[in-house]
Amino acid sequence: MAVDTVEWYDWSELPPARPLRHENRRIYVGSETCARFLPGLEQALDYCQAQIDMGRYLTVVTSWLSDEFLAKAIELIELLSERHQQLEVVCNDWGLLHAANGRFACELVAGRLLAVQRTDPRLAMFGRVALQRTMEKDVPHVEGFTARLKHCAPSSALLAHLRQSPLDCPQTLNLLQTKHVHRFEVSNLLQGLETSPRAGWRVTLHYPDVLIAVARDCRSLSSRKCPGKPDSTCSTPVAHAYDDFPVSLYRDANAWFYANPNVPDNLSEMGIDRLVRKRKLSSRPW
Q1: Of the candidates 222, 241, 115, the residue with the CA atom closest to the CA atom of residue 172
Q2: Is 53 strand, coil or helix?
Q3: Which of 88, 101, 113, 128 is close enough to 92 for a disulfide, judged by CB 3.0 to 4.6 Å?
Q4: Counting beta carbons within 10 angstroms of the beta carbon of residue 212, is it exposed (0 to 12), middle (13 to 18) or buried (19 or more)?
């Protein structure tokens, strides 16, 4: 199975003004974490037309949505699907999947917010027996005696559970198929990744940035300085190092990430046919 590599941009960031090679003519654009970054219709049309003129295919990324922004996202999808016959829309909100189902000439994709993966990077330390044994210690009991806290090696079933996505199960995939969805997206987990290849399904892997958590608001909004579009006040990633974490974390606007650049060797065996790199975060040194 061939694996394409796709670049991901903000609406304010235009890709290089040159035709792309045939195998990676698609680009991603948008925010998966903040609905305030949805563009105006005129801006979106101009962006879409510029990419069509360059022979590119467009994947529009949307975030979780309030009722107000759900209506705006529907209006945006309706407009772009009329202009772009190869349009994909990454949905990170079940409400958008339901509202857009069968209404527009575009392909709907289940985003990685819907994948609900176990993204705490400390889970990568869970199966390291030698490391866990260094953390064994005596713990005083309330009844006066001392208990030895010892490491119990996790079962292979538990480790597999931590590497999988709840989205990747027959019941959820059957539900997604009723919404005409045949692609879902996952992060490159530090503890390893497991997916189950299924006929008719395609998987997108995001790397190196692993999305840990999304807050309702960001620093800019809480200080009443939200610009309503990507700029330096809300989109400058800040790194944080913690002693009990195996990697550094970084915050970008209202979301937390860590980086795992080590892509699995068996992508085809996992049904993965697309890699996505977010240019802004992936260019950071951490």
Answers
A1: 115
A2: helix
A3: 113
A4: middle
As for how many domains the chain has, the answer is: 1
Residue 142 lies in a domain: no
CATH number for position 13:
3.20.20
Cα(278)–Cα(281) distance, rounded to whole angstroms? 6
Q: Bridge partners of 63?
A: none
**Which residues are CB-contacts of 197 (< 8 A; sequence separation ≥ 6)?**
269, 270, 271
**Paired tokens of 184:** 């879902």
Q: Are 194 and 160 in contact (CB under 8 A)?
A: yes
User: pTM value?
Assistant: 0.86
Token representation of residue 33: 């974490």
In a domain, 174, yes or no: yes
Q: Residue 31's domain spans which residues?
A: 4-119+164-282
Cα separation of 248 and 240, whole Å?
Answer: 6
Amino acid at 59: T
Strand boundaries in the chain, DSSP class E: 4-9, 26-30, 57-61, 88-91, 107-110, 137-140, 146-149, 181-187, 202-206, 209-214, 238-240, 249-252, 255-259, 272-278
Q: Could you list the pLDDT tens digit for every one of the 286 residues in the chain?
A: 688 899 999 888 777 766 555 556 899 999 999 898 899 999 999 999 988 888 889 999 999 999 999 999 999 999 999 988 889 999 999 999 999 998 998 999 999 999 999 999 999 887 776 767 777 788 888 888 888 887 777 888 988 999 999 888 888 889 999 999 999 999 999 999 998 878 889 999 999 999 999 987 776 555 445 555 555 455 567 788 888 888 999 888 888 999 999 999 989 889 999 999 987 665 554 4
Q: For residue 208, say if its preceding peptide bond is cis, omega within 30 degrees of 0.
A: yes
